[in-house]
Amino acid sequence: PWVAEFRLASGDLLQSVPLSDVRLETSDCVIIAADHSSIDWERVGEKASTIVDSRNAMAVVDSPRASIYKI
């Protein structure tokens, strides 16, 4: 939620998008790079199908629907 856009060394621009239910449901994979307290992790675990969690943010979710991979 804190980085609106990010330019890669190649010059490509990546832009943040709203974390909506539709976005979570239609994403192939959700990557958690920061465990912000403002994010509803229960909702993410229910709506996403696959999550790569680098911050152990999903540890607070009791029974997520998503497949979760911790790195």
What would you say this structure looks like, in words?
- The chain is of the alpha/beta class.
- Helices cover 18% and strands 24% of the residues.
- It is built from 2 helices and 5 strands, in the order E-E-H-E-H-E-E.
- The strands form 2 sheets. Strands 3-4-5 form a 3-stranded parallel beta sheet, with no helix packed on it. Strands 1-2 form a two-stranded antiparallel ribbon.
- It is globular.
Task: Give the tags.
single chain, 71 residues, alpha/beta, three-stranded parallel beta sheet, two-stranded antiparallel ribbon, 2 helices, 18% helix, globular
Quick overview of this protein structure:
It contains two helices and five strands. It has 71 residues and is of the alpha/beta class. The longest helix is centred in the middle third of the chain and has 7 residues, at 41-47.
Shape: globular
Class based on secondary structure composition and strand pairing: alpha/beta
Whole-number mean pLDDT: 95
Distance between the termini: 21 Å
Q: Percent range for helical residues?
A: 10-25%
Largest sheet: 3 strands, parallel
Task: Pick out the low-confidence regions.
Answer: none
Order of helices and strands: EEHEHEE
Topology summary:
Elements lengths: L4 E3 L5 E3 L5 H6 L3 E3 L8 H7 L2 E4 L13 E4 L1
Parallel strand pairs: 3-4, 4-5
Antiparallel strand pairs: 1-2
